[in-house]
Fold each of these.
Amino acid sequence: MGGAGPNGLPMTDPLDHVFAALADRTRREILTMLLEDDMAVTDVAEPFEMSLAAISKHLGILTRAGLISQEKRGRVKWCKLEPDALRDASIWMQSFGQFEAVNLDAFERFLEAEIDGPSGGSDRAD
Amino acid sequence: MGGAGPNGLPMTDPLDHVFAALADRTRREILTMLLEDDMAVTDVAEPFEMSLAAISKHLGILTRAGLISQEKRGRVKWCKLEPDALRDASIWMQSFGQFEAVNLDAFERFLEAEIDGPSGGSDRAD
DNA sequence: GCCATATTCAACCAAACGGTTGACGATGGG
DNA sequence: CCCATCGTCAACCGTTTGGTTGAATATGGC
């Protein structure tokens, strides 16, 4: 698969794709939209002022990075957030993580409260 | 440079620079090296198989992203890791890692409290 | 003062990026 | 069957990226 560089390390790290995908505001906004719900390509494109083809390319980049998945049902292609790839990148970043400022314990407590809490949560429109 | 887009949002988010800087294996390796110790430019360049000028450019990109700082002492320029910029990106990513269909308003309140809170606000060294 | 060292600058290059447009293949509805 | 809709493909364009080289600019040692 991936060729190996002189160090024995792969020449293209999956992190390359993840971070490169995140380095664009449009794509980050798309991810934020998909956080709320799965969406069709056309609906993803709607709020943006660029062509459908451009959004299609962005979605391809996000897919290649593993940040989303796309499933075609009928003539509609549904886009779905895939948080696992982000988790890998997040883990990489935490190795730098002095993170004095952010209290990760508090963050985890917050997450648990949110997920267990308010409305039992997942009412996805499938 | 920082014009405003049609949404009133800035056209170039600081996160653009951070993620773009991280999207290159060489730069990630440089950050890893700096994790252990501050280093001079020449020493940073030594293990790589590219020119010193190329490394100098990479360091410029990392500096522009706020991921490192450079201080010239004598004729040597010392490079130092700046974890704060990474913290912001990490916080952004965490919103995707663990959330399913969670209350984003509460998440934003959490972030504001965390960022404004513990150390009297974000004092970025630009 | 002179020379070696440390780092950047400037010009150049190929490749990738982000966007456009227009044509094209699927698919589903009346 | 016909046609509108969904989405991608292909070609093109200007800009950015990641690298090279060679010259230039500090700075420090002797």
Amino acid sequence: MGCLDDGCSTGLVLGLGLTPLTDLESSTSKPGDYSNRLIRPQIKPSLKFDHKPLTSTSFELSLSLVLSSETYSHGSRQKTMDGEKGCEVSIVAHDLLLYRQASPDQSAVSSFSSGRVKRERDLGCEDIEVERISSRVSDEDEDGTNARKKLRLTKEQSALLEESFKQHSNLNPKQKEALARQLNLRPRQVEVWFQNRRARTKLKQTEVDFEFLKKCCEALTDENRRLQKELQELKALKLAQPFYMHMPAATLTMCPSCERIGGGGDGASKSSFSMVPKPHFYNTL
DNA sequence: CTGCGACTGGAATTTACGTCA
DNA sequence: CATGACGTAAATTCCAGTCGC
């Protein structure tokens, strides 16, 4: 990314925009995890300027040249090399687009600090157009810094997301799209919400597991201490009462709870207890 | 301080495309 | 010329970690 500053040093950044001729969202998509990839071959020429003329693509591409000072600090992950000059060209199309909440009661405005080109297909064409109109107006701070402005989801949005998460913690692209439409959010936002939700659910579960294991550990420590003590007492008993010495060791058992010694043998076997292993309470998770 | 929306970077995976036998 | 195997680039998703409001 250093090239933006020093390599080219032109102060110019080439921005790429998709002006929709797009039936690509509606017609070519198929259900399935990677349906959106179907549009990739069409986007590809736009990313590699040295391959094909832009006009060969199936939709119009708009390029804008802007001063690099207008670009975002995060920059773009998608970059390519200018074939002729060997100069890195940053594609910042989406970076310059501002998302505007469709809901009028949404006071918060989501920043679009580092939307990447690859994310652009997340947006419906209308959304792109809306964002294009409202872009460059208010997303950036006056001083050009790119502070994240955080959207606060409404209760309704959160509730619906939660509801949806309960049904499936992972969304396929179609579900994501539908949910985003329903919530007046970008698919990317829905995606991020689900990612965060999964991560935090996992974190919570880890904490619960940790507490559980800690309690198990404490219980086992206690049990171990008790058994050690019991062993000591048994040893002491053995020394103090030589009476048991002449009995075969295998016939002697001790009740773990009442600590009484039961003898083996024919007659005694009925009255003696049996050593049933204690069931372990710390079953696996 | 906590909650949470958003971002970054990396891994894994799929797909398209070019090359070669 | 058609075809299959193979390598590679591009694009996607998810996750872990982090930032910052």
